C-alpha cells in the first residue's frame, strides 16, 4: 500500500544550482528558498560547505543562510564533506548536515577525492561531532543505480555503504540515482535489497531524471514503505562530477503525482510553480517540470 503522507526534501537550491555555468546572485538563491518555504516545503537543502575550488557555485552558502528568515519547524540542511565543512556549517548555526558517500569507487574518487572506505573514515568524526552538538545528520549514497565511470552497480554495494552510514549515526539514508539511468524494476529491487540492511523508514529516494525515468522509478518504490523523496523545483540540477547528469526529478511533478494519488505532502502546487519561476527566469530557461509548464499554460 502507498503511504498516506510523503515528506519531500527540496534539493534544488543545492543539487540544482551547484552545477550552473553562470554565477547566480546570492539574493536570487535566498528568494528561491523563501519562495519554496512559502510553498510549504519544510526541508530545503540550502547549499554546501565543500571546497569552493571544487564547486564555486556553493561558495556563498554562508551568505545565503545568513539572509534566510528564521522559520520555526523548517530545516535548511547543507552538505559537508569533512570536519572543515562541518565547522563552517556550525558557524552559521545550521541544525542539520548531510555527508555524502558513493557506492562506486571511481565516483567516490572523482567527487570527493578518496576511496569509499576513506570517506567513511572521514565521515565518522564528522557525524560524531555533529551529533554531539545536537545536529541531525543525513547520509547520501551516490550511483545507486549506475555509475558514470563503472556502469552497473550492485545493490549489495549500495546496501553496504548505506548500512555503514546508518551505523555512523545518520538518521536517514538518501539513495542517489546520480545519473538517472535506473528503471522501475531495478529501482524497486534496489530498495528491496537495501531494506535488508537499512529499515525502510530510514530510506529516502533521490532520483535524477536524466532518462525520464524518475517518476516511474519513484512510483515503483512507493508501495514498499518508503515515504521520503528528494526532488528539485523546476527539475534544476546535475552533478559536476557526473558528466551528462541532469536535474533531479522536478518537485512540481512529484507533488502533482502525489496529490493525484491522494498522498499528503503539505505543498501548495501553484505557489511551488511560482517558486520555480523565480529561479528559471534568472537562468533564462523554462522549468524542466512538465506539470509546471502545464499549470503555467492554463
Ligand atoms: P581535497 O582536495 O582532497 O581536500 O578535496 P583537502 O582536504 O586536501 O583540501 C584541499 C583544499 O581544499 C585546502 O585548501 C582545504 O582548506 C580546502 P588549500 O590549503 O589548498 O587552500 N577545503 C575546504 N574548503 C572549504 N570547505 C571545505 C573544505 N575542505 C577542504 N569543506 C574535498 C576533498 C572533499 C574537499 C573536495 O573533493 C570537495 O569539496 N568535493 C565536493 C564535491 C561536491 O560538492 N560534489 C557535489 C555534491 S555530491 C552530489 O551532488 C550527489 C548527491 O546529490 C546525491 C546524488 O545525486 O547521487 C548528494
Ligand atoms: Mg543529486
UniProtKB/TrEMBL annotation:
Gene3D superfamilies listed in its UniProt record: Aldolase class I
MF (Gene Ontology): lyase activity
PROSITE patterns with a match to the protein in the record: PYR_CT (PS50991)
UniProt keywords, alphabetically: Lyase, Metal-binding
Cited Pfam families: HMGL-like
Domain Pyruvate carboxyltransferase as annotated: residue spans: 6-273
InterPro entries noted in UniProt: Aldolase_TIM, HMGL, PYR_CT
NCBIfam families attached to this UniProt entry: PRK05692.1
Family stated for the protein in its record: Belongs to the HMG-CoA lyase family.
This protein's name: Hydroxymethylglutaryl-CoA lyase
Species of origin: Methylobacterium brachiatum
